[in-house]
Amino acid sequence: MQEEGEMVTPGEVLGKATELKAGKGAYIGSYRDTDIQYVFSSLTGLRRTLSPSPDSPDQRPTVEVTGHKAHGAVPEPGSVVIARVTKVMAKTASADIMCVGPKSVQEKFTGIIRQQDVRATEIDKVDMHLSFRPGDIVRALVLSLGDARAYYLSTAKNELGVVSAESAAEEEGAMSDLKSSAMVGLPMPSLLTREYKNIHYRTHCLTTCATMVPISWTEMQCPLTGQIEQRKVAKVGS
């Protein structure tokens, strides 16, 4: 158990909700996919415990976290976040959370999308590799804190899912062009930078700049090559 005044970080367990009340800089949530409720820190700062007043019907102490400086947005259960997919495996996809609502984060937060949280129907038929690819930008809902300070995310609503994606076909073509240029001593083409200030459906190809358009809830298409790729697509305009 932490000592009074100890430095804690976002997502760190402060104690059981049956023994503590969540004050400023703290929130209550489940831990490791169980029904047990815990109090978590929502920011980086100093932990302290406040004793209840003698006449209070609830005699649990209140735990709070006080930050020593301004800090960015922090994911909490129920928050809608924008995240970049970093790794896709058979049962899960990992992502770096970039924004909580309209606010950007200033610390590193990791999200995990599990197979059962990709969509609401036919969960057993979900193929993670046909739902997301590394580099995809997704809009997701924070479910709870998972293992190792990673947040469990869900895309199981129409308005949640991939909002920006790169075309695998264009990536492969670009890499081929880069290798060819290097072999013959031609100048290497500059890579296009990505901007996420106004998230919408698009792709930044390395050889050309095109918009990947959604053609169904499960497919997006490059308008230049006609290449169709499968994704768990978020509803436009949500």
From TrEMBL:
It comes from the Eukaryota. InterPro entries: Csl4, EXOSC1_C, Exosome_cplx_N_dom. GO terms for cellular component: cytoplasm; nuclear exosome (RNase complex); nucleolus. CDD domains: S1_CSL4. GO terms for biological process: RNA processing. It is found in: Nucleus, Nucleolus. The keyword Cytoplasm applies. Keywords: Cytoplasm, Exosome. Transmembrane segments: none annotated. GO terms for molecular function: RNA binding. The keyword Nucleotide-binding does not apply. Residues 7-47 form the Exosome complex component N-terminal domain. Residues 104-145 form the Exosome complex component CSL4 C-terminal domain. This is Uncharacterized protein.
